[in-house]
Amino acid sequence: TLVIILVVILVVVVTLLLVVIFAALVIILVVVLVVVVALLLIVILAALVVILVVVVTLLLVVIFAALVIILVVVLVVVVTLFLVIIFATLVIILIVVFVVVVALFLVIILATLVVVLVVVLVIVVALLLVVIFALSFLLLL
Question: Considering the entire predicted model, what is its pTM?
Answer without folding.
Answer: 0.45
